[in-house]
Write a structure and sequence with these properties.
The chain has ten helices and eleven strands. It is α+β, with helices and mostly antiparallel strands. The chain folds into two domains: about 170 residues, Beta-Lactamase (2-Layer Sandwich), CATH 3.30.450; about 100 residues, PAS domain (Beta-Lactamase, 2-Layer Sandwich). The strands form two sheets. Strands 3-2-1-6-5-4 form a six-stranded antiparallel β-sheet, sandwiched between helices. It has a five-stranded antiparallel β-sheet with strand order 8-7-11-10-9. A hairpin with a 5-residue loop joins strand 10 and strand 11. The protein is elongated and about 85 Å long.
Length: about 290
């Protein structure tokens, strides 16, 4: 009874992690470790597909460091077979060629990993991870060496979890991509020798480069500018040609250039597919 209660607790713990994590490294490590505990397997690895390079990759802890490993997607390996065919495998003995050929004539087990590490793989469970129900495969979960082998209940439970893991992986990858793009934009904007400021249609500052801090006389940081009105942060522009041009570009939707005493300001509209101005991009250069 105690073992059943612990199994249920583990199951709900992993559900909580899956549904709340946006960190791909946490999914590749913490989630996988929880899955291993539920299955009572010796080892467990989650591979994510890189179809562009026709590889799968994962991350494992080695001496407290996360190390990326990559393996090719090929039908002649167990994980590769699942990735390529979107079918699961439940193998009792990976060294039993007859069992492998019964699953698929092309299926084979790569013994080189065992030979390098001294580990002896026996039972193997491989579950494809779909992007969503009946969607394309986004990854593969591989568990090794459960005493007595993996059961049909293990397969069914992991197939249910696989859908949730797929959603979590996809969300985490999207979040990582957005975060990397945001960081790249920050590097670009901070390194440029011109001021860049992005306003919405109410002239609220949405983004700004560090150059704008100097323009404010260091009275404001970039972070404190975000969400504030541009003309309140820079009151010297109120009633000038620049304020008139901002209004004109918002109304007319075409680029204009403003020449002030020591500054040149290009005001570029960002328009949607209905030709409606959504944002203004200001590029400010000292003359």
């Amino acid at each position: 009874m105690k073992e059943l209660t612990q199994s249920i607790d583990n199951f709900f713990n992993i559900l909580e992690t899956i549904l709340t994590s946006l960190d791909i490294n946490e999914i590749l490590t913490s989630v996988v470790e929880q899955v291993r505990n539920i299955l009572k397997a010796e080892r467990c690895t989650l591979y994510i597909l890189d179809r562009e390079n026709y590889e799968m990759y994962s991350k494992v802890l080695q001496a407290e460091n996360l190390v990326e490993i990559r393996v090719p997607i090929k039908k002649s390996s167990l994980a590769g077979y699942s990735a390529e065919t979107a079918n699961y495998l439940n193998i009792k003995d990976a060294y039993d060629d007859a069992e492998l050929k019964a699953a698929d004539p092309e299926l084979a087990f790569d013994k080189s990993w065992d030979m390098k590490s001294g580990y002896r793989t026996q039972s193997v469970l491989v579950i494809p991870i779909p992007f969503r129900t009946n969607g394309p495969t986004i990854g593969v979960l591989q568990a090794l060496n459960k005493p007595g082998g993996f059961t049909q209940k293990d397969v069914e439970m992991m197939q249910e979890l696989a859908i949730l893991i797929g959603i979590a992986v996809n969300n985490a990858l999207l979040y990582q991509k957005v975060d990397e793009e945001r960081l790249l934009r920050t590097y670009i904007m901070d390194d440029i020798e011109e001021g860049i400021c992005i306003l919405n249609t109410k002239k609220t500052i949405m983004s700004a480069s560090r150059f704008m801090e100097m323009m404010s006389g260091m009275r404001y940081t970039v972070d404190s500018m975000i969400g504030a009105n541009f003309l309140e942060i820079f009151p010297n522009f109120v009633g000038t040609e620049l304020e008139e041009i901002l209004n004109d570009v918002l109304a007319k939707g075409y680029k204009m250039i403003c020449q002030l005493s020591v500054l040149e300001v290009k005001v570029i509209p960002y328009v949607d597919d209905k030709n409606k101005v959504r944002q203004l991009i200001l590029i400010i250069t000292r003359i």
